[in-house]
């Protein structure tokens, strides 16, 4: 009888440990990268530093890669600084280096 009771207690301890680990793992996954606005309007010659929003925000120091859909309209540095070079519409995206999670922002440049 004592052996069954010990096995029962061990099983209970293992189950509690397993469920508490699962919850922590779910919180440690980058869920999304976004921007506060969907569109940014600039004039030719403007410079802007983009600040993406990470969910959860504990991922805000992740290494990211920046890109633009059309470098003739907007250039983007790897620190998120964009420069409006000519009129047009394009997008800028920021992607987590370690996953497929990314966010996009539409950029409209006018004279």
Automatic annotation (TrEMBL):
> Which residues does the UniProt record annotate as the domain BIG2?
29-106
Q: Which SUPFAM superfamilies match?
A: Invasin/intimin cell-adhesion fragments
InterPro entries to which the protein is assigned, alphabetical: Big_2, Invasin/intimin_cell_adhesion
Q: Report the protein name in the record.
A: Ig-like protein group 2
Pfam families tied to this protein: Big_2
What PROSITE patterns would the database entry show? PROKAR_LIPOPROTEIN
As given in the record, the signal peptide range reads none
């Amino acid at each position: 009888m004592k052996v069954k009771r010990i096995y029962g207690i061990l099983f209970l301890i293992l189950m509690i440990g397993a469920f508490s680990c699962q919850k922590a793992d779910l919180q440690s996954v980058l869920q999304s990268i976004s921007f506060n606005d969907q569109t940014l309007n600039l004039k030719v010659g403007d410079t802007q530093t983009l600040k993406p929003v990470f969910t959860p925000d504990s991922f805000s120091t992740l290494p990211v890669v920046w890109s633009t859909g059309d470098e003739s309209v907007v250039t983007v540095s790897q620190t998120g600084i964009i420069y409006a070079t000519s009129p047009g519409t394009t997008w800028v995206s920021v992607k987590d280096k370690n996953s497929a999670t990314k966010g996009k922002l539409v950029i409209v440049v006018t004279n």
